[in-house]
Amino acid sequence: MAAKSQFLWWLDRDAIGIAFYNPTATTTWSSPTSDYTGRQVVLTSIKRGEHFTLPSAGTSFRMNQTSPIPNQFDEYLVYKAIAMGYEKKPDTIQVAQYFDQKYMMGVIEGKKYANKGRLGTSRRITPMDF
Question: Which sign does the torsion angle of CA 40, 46, 49, 50 carry?
Answer without folding.
Answer: negative
